[in-house]
Amino acid sequence: MTEYEPVIGLEMHAELMTESKMFSKAKVVDSVEAAPNTAVSPLCLGMPGTLPVINEKAVEYATRVALALNCEINHHNIFARKNYFYPDLPKGYQISQYEQPLGVNGWLDIELESGETKRIGIRRVHMEEDTGKLTHQDDGTSLVDYNRAGVPLLEIVTEPDIRSGEEARAYAMKVRQILRYLGVNSGDMEKGVLRVEPNISIRPVGSTEFGTRTELKNLNSFRVLADGTAFEIARQTAVLQSGGKVVQETRGWHDTRRETFSQRTKEEAEDYRYFPEPDLPPLHLDDAWIEAVRASLPELPDVKVARYMADYELSEYDSRVLSEERAVGEWFDTAVTAGGIPKSVANWMINELFRLMNEAKLSIDAIQVTPAALVELIGLVDKQTINNNTAKDVLAEMFTSGTAPTQIVEAKRLAQISDNAALQAIIDQILDDNAEQVARYLEGQEKLRGFFVGQVMRQTKGKANPGLVNQLLDSALDAKK
Ligand code: ADP
Ligand code: MG
Question: Which residues, 6 or more positions from 245, have their beta carbon under 8 angstroms from its beta carbon?
Fold first, then answer.
């Protein structure tokens, strides 16, 4: 039987978190929290006599994304009318970009589970406006909310370089990470501010031509992206293997049946009767402006990962964990600047701080522990003022109260007992009280050594310096041989 390989290209739509809409002064509001139709202007509603004005901030945000995705920026930008009738589009057309989009010929490297890196080509990044939102009700009527109509929207389109559901997912997650780094989109897919649409076809392995594609719409999570893509690959394979033909169409995802279904046969570009938007002049971006936007970009995840590996000798895994979110990386960097040893700070963050954050469901900008306070805590361990286990308890306390570690250690008298004489007295007492165990130890039951250490820790409430305990205990036991 013929073997097929998938060919996938992804379109992503990202709303931009500007104050106002793409072409009007109406506010951009949270589509879930705001009451319907409370953030609309006459322009959003397509009233006669209204004229669009380009939102400079939206152009800046869009340019940030295009630059971060390694695109060439077109100096001469044209807006175009994309005409179609639908109740969520009161103007009867969407202002988009067609022939001269903002960014072209970009790329993004993704990491695969195998550890390999793959470069995905980015065909175009263009600016447009979002449509309103329809809610279909059980009684057959539909409600429309125009708060979303006119919200700045970015469309990011890849080359057909993706070859599996896993790659599609890795690419989409990385775009989301970059949008969040850039501060232009929250990445809240469940709110619909970020949407992913895979175009999927299959072809015989070895063939260089593309097969007929279908496009999956309205996938609202990365899991659905992976599952829907896998389903579609299997469906198309079955169609071709049984001698059928794949129909070019738009398909939706049925979440309970977990399958795709046909929505409409694909319209061609001609159907939209694109033409240059007569109400907007071409938008010219000069080099100085573009370079100023480039200079304002934050350090991006891959660069951060490479820096942590090269400068701090962290593992790739740890570096990726710390770079997952921009705020986490900045927190780590601040701790290192405050004098923390990178490897220790990384370990404390990944093993202890993230656990506390997960339990409390708090993000790093919402916690009371400061980077300097963590460095102070690590310093107390390094100076042997407290041992590692005590330090974990102190961190938990810092996490709930925001108190400085030194203060907690003093107030609770947690400082380690490193006093030779005091520890010696405790050890002697324990060996006296447990003569029978000592005898068994001397007869060869060496495991009892752990029992003695445990007793010392119990008596000192865990505060004994473990190194010193081991040393004193060994000589005390030796003396009894
Ligand atoms: P449209 O605007 O009609 O959706 P585009 O040319 O913008 O078409 O392509 C949309 C996406 O589909 C792009 O990501 C592109 O890489 C991808 N694509 C194009 N042809 C195929 C194909 N035969 N199989 C899979 N993906 C494809
Ligand atoms: Mg499309």
Answer: 212, 239
pLDDT tens by residue, 333-352:
999 999 999 999 999 999 99
The closest alpha carbon to 473, from 406, 440, 428, belongs to: 428
CA dihedral 247, 253, 254, 260 (to 10 degrees): 30
Residue 42 DSSP SS3: coil
Asked if 41 contacts 26 with a C-beta cutoff of 8 angstroms, the reply is yes
φ and ψ of 411, to 5 deg:
-60, -40
Q: Using the atom order of ligand 1, give the atom closest to the CA of residue 201.
A: 24
The model's pTM is 0.88
Q: What is the pLDDT of residues 439-481, one digit of tens each?
A: 999 998 888 888 999 999 888 888 888 888 999 999 999 888 8
CB atoms near residue 272 (< 10 Å): 17
How many Å lie between the centroid of ligand 1 and the Cα of residue 162?
11
Over residues 341-387, the pLDDT tens digits come to: 999 999 999 999 999 999 999 999 999 999 999 999 999 999 888 98
Q: Tokens 């390999």 sit at which residue?
A: 116
* Pocket, ligand 1, Cβ cutoff 6 A: 7-11, 157-160, 199-201, 210-211, 213
pLDDT of residue 48: 93
> Distance between CA atoms of 14 and 175, rounded to whole angstroms?
10
81 contacts 275 by C-beta, under 8 angstroms:
yes
Ligand 1 centroid – CA 16 distance (Å): 23
Rounded Cα distance between 198 and 168, Å, is 8
Q: Is residue 287 packed enough to be buried (19+ CB in 10 Å), middle (13-18) or exposed (0-12)?
A: exposed
Q: Could you say which ligand is closest to the alpha carbon of residue 198?
A: 1
Q: How far is the CA of 120 from the centre of ligand 1 (A)?
A: 14
How much distance in Å is there from the Cα of 269 to the middle of ligand 2?
A: 10
Pick the ligand that lies closest to the CA of residue 202.
1
Residue nearest to atom 11 of ligand 1 (CA): 9
SS3 430: helix
Distance CA 45, CA 31 (A): 17
